[in-house]
Design goal:
heterodimer, A: about 400 residues, alpha+beta, Immunoglobulin-like, about 50% helix, B: about 625 residues, Cytochrome C Oxidase, Chain A, 2 strands, transmembrane helix (chain A)
Chain lengths: ~400, ~625
């Protein structure tokens, strides 16, 4: 097929496509016009124009590629007809492209590491987070070395050992020594990583409680698509809850017959004191969510029917972090990281890390979950009463007494 | 020799198979010929891949321009994109179905189904599969599964949208997300059909490989492709039934009020009656399949690339035995690493430690494979066919994605990376890109065997370079989003101040994805055009050693006219010193290649060694032996 004939063919084909596209658009336009009577009028003309524009651009590119392809073919055939050596050595083209890809790719990796690499999370703001960061950096160094070395070999060999009719490949089916080396070396490196990872993992999840520095309990309950925070109140322990007690006024299903529940406090944001261990008790009401607090390197799923616990110690206050990141609007956040429905992408709350003194003043201002309506619901006296006198005032309620005694026995 | 020679008695029937009366239906639709079934799997797989790629472009558009309206989307999607904006629920449906189609329909059925069916009988020297009828059923179950899955786009509540892992309770409770209604039921039906298909296929592959190898084809003479398909099939047989068990329990929970996966659930103020189950149970059952599944996806691709790299480097694959043992190692280990998907689910931390150890151990056989590929390229004589380009691309992606796996396999690092874009980037490189590249390498390499014609090499080059570059442009930057704590499956990045800096990256990634998608037009055109108009192939276009290239170009039911060839040697005698051409097919006996035989070729057979020694004494020209 001659080049000229081909172009004419392509042109006719392209024309045919264009005609079809225009025919279709007019049909669509008619539909839109018909539908416009009921729906508010949307001007689709511009839209179709832009869609057609992009389709035309693409077809033009295809046409261009086809022409280039045919030109190459004509060139090669004419070389062949004249008895000259093959026009384009595609092995050389491809091997050179690999070499080029290697150079540009390495630069791209460098660019990514420096530009996007500087847009990442700031250094960890928790004790265990520092260990995770160290672990990460070590892994990053090892993998980057391997990544670059293997790619230099891969694309380098592709470039150097391109096909040549004069050469024969080196018959080299195996070498047990080399194979042993590159089995054992990765195994050793991985052993180091596994050991360090294992120790870090243990230090995060197997904490020995220091009786002098007991963690502050905070309970997080997730539901579509919000978090509810519960502080333990004066007794330092979040009380029982039972999902069967859930009502409109008691959204968490807190069991107020448990004395420990009565002083539990609600909060709009998570405020925690710096350098004090925090024990997060994570639960979920409906589906699985994930409590993700990346600045502190904390993540654990919240699972309905199950309690999960994560303990961490913040090391930087929000103000410190604002100075370090040079961003006066910096906020610690926690949000959902497990697909949970249509609002998954916006399920966040602010975390404020403050000094112990600030924390105490803030905490004193927070309301308790137990309010007058709930007192009525649970047959508790409406007048606010100190915890101590509870057992006297509820003496008439035998069930409450039992619970109290059980609670006391614990 | 343990090979059962069942096939010999059919020889004379197949030499002239005039007695077969083939109709259009028996030849092209309900075909029982493994080559036709392979083509059916391939073309269905390609169509599903195009659909899933289209879905990904839709949600990439949403991610790049969350504030813009695209009225043409409403034209196609109706109420799911009212006003030209994809709805949040539908966004989740898109990612769910994209993942499901790609993992199961494209990379499992499209890859394993195509090449196991095509190559197992041809490369081991069999007339067809052990059970051609089961083979046909396998395809039709797969096809029905695809249809059911696609049909879920045409129901009012939309397709399943709980992510491709369909974690309960989200996937069970209809009020949690609309997709968990009928759409999820269809997902489950489709999955049961799919597993049935893949089991029928797997049993067939294993029994064919074990029982129907031709004379001389002992296990250690099988090409690495066959080893990979064999081990993949075993993985599938052992792990897919567990998924069915999980799916059946989920059907019970959804439709018959049981509580296998549900407990203590309150939707708003509506207290559900289910008690005593655990959503974590599903995760264990799912990932017991799910992790072997990613090796079901990658192992055939590794097998294909081993073959393609060896043929086109004109060099034996380096460390054939190590390659097989590392495949076996991956097969065994892949059953005890599923917990690394569950480090932060609240699973006992002790288990987290154990799964971290097993997970990082699996990196060793993967590293061995990578180094062996590199050693095969070293001092080769590399022909850059399109298949070879894709095989090299696979090695590159396998390295990149494998290395990021070392981060995620480490439980401590996974705490902050779990369910972020780092995970998305990781598995799209190692499972998505690498496996797709393996599949494309296979298509370009065995196209002459499938259709008797050649694909256009130059379009192949264009296809490779555009796809290779675009895939890196798409997935490399996504790692950094993950390192900044951006979770996956977010409908828009607009609600978080810190994510706004990634919006420009998202736009860039979307354009790169569109470029990758358009590059596939070059492939699709090349593929379908060449079926009818491609250059007619010669019998052995790549000068390859394996058995399939000794079969005639035109397809016969029974593969070889006359007797099935006998195998004498391993499949990787490329550029053997002392031989005049740079390849020696498996069917050439050592007696015809006296000048190139090496002592270890005789595997300790004293008589053969003696004959060789005598020959060498009488022909003392050995200066080109090395």
């Amino acid at each position: 097929m001659s080049l000229r004939k081909f172009i004419t063919n392509k042109t006719t084909a392209a024309l045919a496509v264009l005609i079809t596209v225009f025919a279709n658009t007019s049909v669509f336009a008619q539909d839109a016009a018909a539908g416009a009577a009921a729906a508010p009028k949307v001007d689709m003309g511009e839209v179709y124009k832009s869609v057609i524009f992009y389709i035309l651009v693409f077809l033009a590119i295809c046409l261009f590629i086809a022409i280039v392809g045919k030109a190459i073919r004509v060139y090669e055939l004419s070389r062949e007809a004249q008895g000259k050596p093959v026009g384009i050595n595609w092995n050389r083209v491809n091997s050179s492209l690999f070499a080029l890809f290697l150079v540009l790719g390495l630069y791209g990796v460098y660019w990514e590491y420096t530009v996007h690499g500087s847009m990442l999370l700031p250094d960890a703001a928790s004790v265990h987070g520092k260990r995770i960061d160290d672990m990460f950096n070590l892994t990053l160094i090892i993998t980057t070395i391997v990544f670059i070395a293997t790619h230099i070999l891969l694309f380098g060999f592709s470039y150097i050992y391109k096909y040549s009719a004069k050469r024969k490949a080196y018959y080299y089916p195996h070498n047990n020594t080399i194979e042993k080396i590159w089995t054992i070396v990765p195994a050793l490196v991985l052993t180091v990583l596994v050991l360090m990872g294992f120790l870090t993992w243990r230090s995060i999840f197997y904490k020995v409680e220091d009786p002098k520095n007991m963690p502050i309990q905070i309970e997080m309950t997730s539901e579509q698509f919000k978090w509810t925070i519960r502080y333990p109140g004066a007794d330092g322990i979040v009380g029982h809850k039972n999902y069967k007690l859930t009502t409109a006024s008691n959204a968490l299903g807190i069991d107020f017959k448990d004395l420990k529940s009565r002083d539990d406090q609600m909060a709009d944001e998570m405020v925690i004191p710096v350098d004090k261990p925090i024990k997060l008790i994570l639960t979920s009401k409906d589906v699985i969510h994930s409590f993700y607090m990346p600045h502190f390197r904390v993540q654990l799923n919240t699972v309905p029917g199950m309690q999960t616990v994560f303990e961490f110690t913040p090391t930087k206050t929000t103000t410190q972090m604002q100075q370090e990141t040079n961003d006066p609007n910096f906020k610690f956040l926690f949000y959902c990281a497990k697909i949970c429905g249509s609002g998954h992408y916006n399920m966040q709350k602010v975390v404020r890390v403050v000094s112990m003194a600030e924390y105490k003043t803030w905490l004193a201002e927070q309301k308790t979950y137990l309010n007058d309506d709930l007192r009525k619901e649970f047959n508790l006296p409406v007048a606010p009463a100190p915890v101590k006198s509870v057992s006297d005032t509820t003496a008439t309620d035998s069930a409450a007494v039992k619970t109290n005694q059980m609670a006391l026995n614990k | 020799m343990s090979t059962i020679a069942l096939h010999d008695e059919h020889n004379h029937d197949h030499a002239d198979h005039g007695h077969h009366k083939e109709t259009l239906i028996s030849k092209y639709i309900f075909s029982m010929d493994h080559k036709m079934i392979a083509k059916q799997f391939l073309i269905t797989g390609i169509i599903m891949a195009v659909i899933a790629m289209g879905l990904s472009i839709l949600f990439r558009i949403q991610l790049a321009w969350p504030d813009k309206n695209f009225p043409f989307l409403e034209t196609f999607l109706g109420k799911w994109a009212e006003g030209g904006r994809i709805k949040s629920d539908f966004y989740l449906a898109l990612v769910t179905i994209h993942g499901t189609i790609m993992v199961f329909f494209v990379l499992t059925a499209g890859l394993s189904g195509t090449f196991s069916n095509l190559l197992i009988p041809l490369q081991i020297g069999a007339r067809d599969m052990a059970s051609p009828f089961l083979n046909m059923l396998s395809y039709w179950f797969f096809f029905t599964a695809c249809m059911v899955m696609m049909a879920s786009f045409f129901i009012q509540t939309g397709p399943a949208s709980g992510g491709w892992t369909v974690y309960p309770p989200l996937s069970i409770i209809e009020t949690a997300i609309p997709g968990s209604g009928l759409g999820m039921t269809m997902w489950l039906i489709s999955m049961v059909l799919f597993v049935a298909s893949s089991l029928m296929g797997g049993i067939n592959y294993v029994s064919t490989i074990l029982n129907m190898r031709t004379k001389g084809m002992d296990l250690w003479k099988m090409p690495l492709t066959i080893w990979a398909f064999f081990l993949t099939a075993i993985l599938g047989i052992l792990s897919f039934p567990v998924l069915v068990a999980g799916v059946v329990l989920m059907v019970f929970d959804r439709s018959f009020g049981t509580s296998f996966y549900l407990s203590d659930i309150v939707m708003g103020t509506n207290i559900l009656p289910n008690e005593g189950g655990s959503p974590i149970l599903w995760q264990h059952l799912f990932w017991f399949l799910g992790h072997p599944e990613v090796y079901i996806v990658i192992m055939p691709a590794l097998g294909i690339s081993s073959e393609v790299i060896s043929v086109n480097s004109r060099k034996p694959i380096f460390g054939y035995h190590a390659m097989v043992y590392s495949l076996i190692g991956i097969t065994v280990l892949s059953f005890i690493v599923w917990g690394h998907h569950m480090f932060v689910t609240g699973m006992n931390p002790l288990l987290g430690g154990v799964f971290m150890i097993t997970t990082l151990i699996i990196a060793v056989p993967s590293a061995v494979k990578t180094f062996n590929y590199l050693a095969t390229l070293w001092r080769g004589n590399i022909r850059f066919t399109p298949a070879m380009l894709f095989a090299i691309g696979l090695v590159s992606f396998f390295i990149s994605g494998g290395l990021t796996g070392i981060f995620l396999g480490n439980a401590s690092l996974d705490i902050n990376l779990h369910d972020t874009y780092f995970v998305v980037a990781h598995f799209h490189l190692v499972m998505g890109s690498a496996a797709i590249f393996g599949m494309l390498a296979g298509v370009y390499h065995w196209y002459p065997k499938m259709f008797g014609r050649m694909m256009n090499a130059k379009l192949g080059y264009l296809h490779f370079w555009l796809t290779f570059i675009a895939a890196y442009l798409v997935f490399f930057p996504l790692h950094f989003l993950g390192l900044d704590g951006v979770p996956r499956r977010y409908y828009a990045f607009t609600e978080f101040e810190f994510m706004k800096k990634w919006l420009t990256v998202n736009i860039f990634v979307t354009w790169a994805a569109i470029m990758a998608a358009l590059a596939q037009v070059a492939f699709l055109f090349n593929f379908f055009y060449s079926i009818f108009k491609g250059k007619v192939a010669t019998q052995n276009p790549w000068e390859s050693n394996t058995l399939e290239w000794t079969a005639p170009v035109e397809h016969l039911h029974g593969n070889w006219p006359g007797e099935i060839p006998t195998v004498y040697r391993w499949p990787y005698d490329y550029s053997k010193p002392g031989h005049d051409v740079d390849f020696i097919p498996q069917t050439v006996p050592f007696s015809q290649t006296m000048s190139s035989n090496l002592p270890h070729d005789f595997e300790g057979n004293a008589e053969a060694e003696k004959i060789q020694q005598d020959w060498e004494l009488s022909n003392p020209v050995t200066e080109n032996k090395g």
